[in-house]
Amino acid sequence: MDGADLTKLWRGENEILSLFLQPISISTMRRLFSTSTSDSAFSFATLTLRLGLGFLMLLNHGYNKLIHFSSYAGKFADPYHIGRTPSLALTIFAEVFCSVFIILGLFTRLAAIPLIIAMTTAFVFAHNANYRGGPGGGEMALLFLMGYIVLLFTGPGKVSLDRFIGK
């Protein structure tokens, strides 16, 4: 960058920089700070929430437990005193199969219930209700729990198999 380029940049004559320095119109500001919602925005938000929660749970938690079942079975927590292997199997059911249902938007509210139970159990028993992040913290379990509770109340949105089957 030479002196002429710096002078253009200082005066605001740079094409790329000028795109970001344009004044924002009043209508754009009203839209950004509006408290009203639209059906399409709500549907996009629920789709984003479903896909984010579903894929993160499936890929980061459930799949690992599924493929390493035998190594987890002996050391998995048994908070409800039904046995380590059944506890792991129920957790895998929630984290893998219910996550797939959430991603597809199929039986979303019903699929959220085992995940809510699993995340509550993880937060309370595995993380000792420690809401802080970091080692031993239950921040992620609590975030997943809140997201699944939202899906339980809102449902899957318009972009889902539930909607296509229902109509």
Description:
By secondary structure, the chain is mainly alpha-helical. It folds into 2 domains: 1-36, no CATH class; 38-166, no CATH class. Helix content is 71%, strand content 0%. α4 (39-67) runs antiparallel to α6 (84-104), α4 (39-67) packs across α8 and α7 runs antiparallel to α8. 24% of the residues are buried. The mean pLDDT is 84.
Give the arrangement of secondary structure elements:
Elements: H1 3-11, H2 15-20, H3 26-32, H4 39-67, H5 69-73, H6 84-104, H7 108-126, H8 139-154, H9 161-166
Helix pairs in contact: 4-6, 4-8, 6-7, 7-8
Please outline what is shown here:
This protein has 167 residues and is mainly α. 71% of the residues lie in helices and 0% in strands.
Helix-strand category = mainly alpha
The total count of strands amounts to: 0
Shape estimate = extended
- Helix and strand string, N-terminal first? HHHHHHHHH
Cα separation of the termini: 60 Å
Can you tell me the number of structural domains? 2
Radius of gyration: 23 Å
Report on the biggest sheet. none
Share of helical residues: over 70%
Low-confidence stretches: none
- Strand content bin: under 5%
Count of runs of 4 or more consecutive helical residues: 9
Estimate the mean pLDDT confidence.
84
What characteristics describe this protein?
mainly alpha; 167 residues; extended; 9 helices; 0% strand; 2 domains
